[in-house]
Amino acid sequence: LRLVESGGGSVQAGEPRRLSCEASAYTDSAHSMAWFRQVPGKERERVATIELDGTTSYADFVKARFTVSKDNAKNTLYLQMSSLSGEDTAMYYCLLRWRDYTYWGQGTQVTVSS
């Protein structure tokens, strides 16, 4: 299974950005899918999760600025981000859990400038 993130790049502070993660399969049966992010020198941290039943959860630092969703017909996970700040600059990764397996994408860099 492959996960390919896209949508990263340079964005101005305060502007929105949508990330996508296209999976080669299993989004409709995955136990959960999630977005993580990581900056150099720090541990990877969870941003948002969507469960098989559609339940979503977010890290506290998201503060209602981000929305996670998925389109099973397109096998794609999304992260709609708004009110971005420099603290959101990071490599963003998507994750898919299916049965006993965990899959990661290669990441997409988001750089927020003021």
In short:
This protein is mostly beta strands and 114 residues long. The protein is 0% helix and 55% strand.
Distance between the termini: 37 Å
What percent strand? Answer: over 45%
Low-confidence stretches: none
Q: What is the structural class?
A: mainly beta
* Number of separate strands: 11
**Whole-number mean pLDDT:** 95
Please give a structural write-up:
- This protein is mostly beta strands.
- Helices cover 0% and strands 55% of the residues.
- The protein contains no helices and 11 strands.
- The chain has strands at residues 3-6, 9-12, 17-23, 32-38, 45-51, 56-58, 66-71, 76-81, 90-98, 101-104, 108-113.
- The strands form 2 sheets. Strands 2, 4, 5, 6, 9, 10 and 11 form a 7-stranded mixed sheet that branches. A 4-stranded antiparallel sheet has the order 1-3-8-7, with no helix packed on it.
- The radius of gyration is 13 Å and the shape is globular.
- The relative contact order is 0.34.
Provide tags for this entry.
114 residues, mainly beta, 7-stranded mixed sheet, 11 strands, 0% helix
SSE blueprint and pairings:
Blueprint: E1 3-6, E2 9-12, E3 17-23, E4 32-38, E5 45-51, E6 56-58, E7 66-71, E8 76-81, E9 90-98, E10 101-104, E11 108-113
Parallel strand pairs: 2-11
Antiparallel strand pairs: 1-3, 3-8, 4-5, 4-9, 5-6, 7-8, 9-10, 9-11
